[in-house]
Amino acid sequence: VLYKGTENWEEVVGRIRGLHTDTLRKLAGKCEDRFMAGQKDHLRFGTDSWSDFRLTTGKPCCEAGDAVYYTASYAKDPLVNYAIKICRSKVKETQQQFFHSLAVRQSLALHFNIQQDCGHFLADVPARLLPWEEEEDNGGEQDKEQEEAEGEVEKKKTKEPSEKTATTTTKEEEEGLLVAGQPAHVGGAGTLRSRVVVITREVPFQTVADFVREGAARHARNPDLYERQVCLLLLQLCWGLEHMKPYHVTHCDLRLENLLLVHCQPGNPWNLELLEPNNNANAAAAAANAGTCPARLIISNFSQAKQKSTLVDPGVLKDQSRLAPEIITATQYRKCDEFQTGILIYEMLHQPNPFEETPELKEREYTCADLPPLPARSLYSQGLQQLASLLLNANPSERIRMADARACLQCLLWGPREDLFQALSSAPGPAQRDATLQNWLDLKRTLMMIKFAERSLDSGSGVSLEDWLCCQYLAFSSPETLARVVRILQQPPTQL
Amino acid sequence: VLYKGTENWEEVVGRIRGLHTDTLRKLAGKCEDRFMAGQKDHLRFGTDSWSDFRLTTGKPCCEAGDAVYYTASYAKDPLVNYAIKICRSKVKETQQQFFHSLAVRQSLALHFNIQQDCGHFLADVPARLLPWEEEEDNGGEQDKEQEEAEGEVEKKKTKEPSEKTATTTTKEEEEGLLVAGQPAHVGGAGTLRSRVVVITREVPFQTVADFVREGAARHARNPDLYERQVCLLLLQLCWGLEHMKPYHVTHCDLRLENLLLVHCQPGNPWNLELLEPNNNANAAAAAANAGTCPARLIISNFSQAKQKSTLVDPGVLKDQSRLAPEIITATQYRKCDEFQTGILIYEMLHQPNPFEETPELKEREYTCADLPPLPARSLYSQGLQQLASLLLNANPSERIRMADARACLQCLLWGPREDLFQALSSAPGPAQRDATLQNWLDLKRTLMMIKFAERSLDSGSGVSLEDWLCCQYLAFSSPETLARVVRILQQPPTQL
């Protein structure tokens, strides 16, 4: 059947196009299965598992906005690494916020770029694992007393909810959260504090804030690479945020320190072999394959998240029906993540948040012309400037939607580029324009297919995260979606 | 540069075609590197290595026409398996033949389907490893005496050539060729016989003779699968024989028992993990990936091989200049392997050698109509019948060339098939015919590329031997080569 009509060239070309598209969609699905292999198993650890976790080192692997992460292994599955997230607890609301964020997160379906929770509970944590509290304690005696008083209050309170605190015996004190090969008394394991603890599978190695800080010199030295990496991280952020839209969830606290980075090994996400120094050949091959994507980005800290309930009380609905839209919370926050993503573009490119620099900006009806320009340092700067302006539009209904922002980033990363834009603008009509875009897509899909084919014979780790992200783009684009993005990116600034 | 001219559809299609062709050629090369990974390292074991080899089992892994093979490991590299080939030595000429075959084989460049020698020497072999000799010994006392007398003569003679016999001390007797974990005295290790021993990297598990014998029931049960496997083995045979043509080497003793089969794991050819019973999931995935190709075929036993010297003595050349071509040995044997390949087709399809059945056939000027028909059991039977007739042509100059036989097998395996032949015969002219074949090739190349792309995300062993063989075909075919093969396969029998 496949070879029927082989005489007709146009039919053959159409069939090759169809095969490429179908295969890329299939491959994108297979990539998802592979990259999310561990995450799709439903794991749930309770208080009773607490004593089976061992820290692999005594130092945090990542210090995020709302929590500190430690790498740990689970006694019943010692080859897999987990992260133990210990929530910071300066403010009294921690727990309440935590249970709020938990409820929001649990309403969302699994996503590659949203933190997944494999269990959470109140646990007694050795004070040595809470170094920031000690620092704070040393900072002021008054604070310390207050903190301790709060701790007491907290501890009493926390016994009340259905979530049971892991009770600590001396035995557990020695076993629970012992650093492998280190005696229990090191670091004053004797002092315990009750904290909200979350177990996650993805072990973050830094936050985007760390990445940006460490990247300052790299940004100057190799702006094309650094800004491309920024685009890849922003793209993942947009994917995660776009995923939340159908659930009517808005994060509302998108900051560099709430975005985590996780090393990404497809297929065997916990295979440390590639990271070991005595496996240099493999590591080099893996690094070459990994492309420019620095890591998997994970959105964390949903404590400020807003969710528009889908089950609205009819009485409330009637009351709201006469209110201006900007007054209703859920509507108010609808385009909040888009705005914050715009600020993140500035911050990731080592520029200050324009609204922190010029607070009066928000007081007046600013236009994109009032926003500080991003320095043109790379191939990507101009496009990121355009995207930031579209995201920071003062008028939420004119502000670009998350899905369009994501499509803009895809276009900045993988094209079409300037040269094709010019060919498009000189195209006599929309049919010719669509044909050009279809040809571009055919060529890109062929190249993508070749890349996958060559990966099958690579000795490295195979398909990289960047391959997957690019495959998603090419598999689900059409001349129409491409034309839309090109139009958005070409909008003259005066129209913004 | 790549995206210049994206407006022009024909240009884009042409570029996609070029990309596919170039990539398939690159992939075919990468496959070769991978499948021949071990073989390309130049290994040479001498007599001094003999005591470092240990048999992994006491039973032969393969009993071939000219030798018996044992699996062995080498003390200095114990994870890699080698085969120890112990030449059968009933006839006095063994050694002379062996050194002849060695000279012929060493004149050939490495090839995937030709046995490679990693070292050879005269060695004292425990009699228990020569079970056939014991059988023969028990058969007649007279033979035994003669054999022993011969052995004595041999042993004296063999000290003479530059090749030194591995001298045996009692210590070596215990160490050399010890079966792992088995005391040296088991099986009468005390008796030693001097034999020609060859070390090869490829461990055969059976000969094609065994495959054919064991395949009789399978041939009846699943003729399409069995006959496809026969095509894949014949294709490898043709590749090996075609490789010998530029070296003017003719094997002249192509028999089922001189063709060895070796398990083929690309990349890690000695990784036994996949074969272990406790690794069923991997083994199943590997089997699914491996396609229908039963094994790698290796041409062995060059004892009857003829080589036309490229440096011909001018005097000899002058003498030969007045002789009829069929009298000159090298010319006489030029198409001998083609003829024997034709006989092998009959034998592999469980039919007797036509010339053994009807010896008088050769006495008269037979035509293909005189050859017994092959039963039409599968998709491949008719094509194999045609190919056998072409190979068994009584007139060597009309007999099909090895390269064309190879191309016929490729066409039988991967198309084009009957349906396209019909479309071609109704094509108005050669331009339309070439266009149809080019379209067919474009489609097949796309499918091959997709297969490789999907392999990159398979959890099995990746690219199979059949993938490589098919990739070679599609990468190096053109409408012209395809048209030639279609013409050959469509020749009416009367023209043969």
Walkthrough of the structure:
The structure is a homodimer of 496-residue chains. With 496 residues, chain A is α+β, with helices and mostly antiparallel strands. Chain A folds into 2 domains: 328 residues, Transferase(Phosphotransferase), domain 1, CATH 1.10.510.10; 156 residues, Phosphorylase Kinase, domain 1, CATH 3.30.200. Chain A is built from 19 helices and 11 strands. In chain A, the strands form 3 sheets. In chain A, strands 1, 2, 3, 4, 5 and 6 form a 6-stranded antiparallel sheet that branches. In chain A, helix 1 crosses helix 17, helix 15 crosses helix 19 and helix 17 packs antiparallel against helix 18. The first copy, chain A, is globular and about 80 Å long. The interface between A and B is large, with 48 and 48 residues.
What are the defining features of this structure?
3-stranded antiparallel sheet, Transferase(Phosphotransferase), domain 1, 19 helices, 6-stranded antiparallel sheet, alpha+beta, 11 strands, 496 residues, Phosphorylase Kinase, domain 1, 2 domains, homodimer, globular
Number of helices of chain A: 19
Oligomer: homodimer
Pair of chains with the largest interface and how many residues each contributes: A-B, 48 and 48 residues
The unreliable regions of chain A are: 140-175, 181-189, 266-289
The N- to C-terminal Cα distance of chain A equals: 52 Å
Q: In CATH, what is the homologous superfamily of the largest domain in chain A?
A: Transferase(Phosphotransferase) domain 1
- The CATH topology of the largest domain in chain A is given as Transferase(Phosphotransferase), domain 1
Work out the radius of gyration of chain A: 25 Å
Shape verdict of chain A: globular
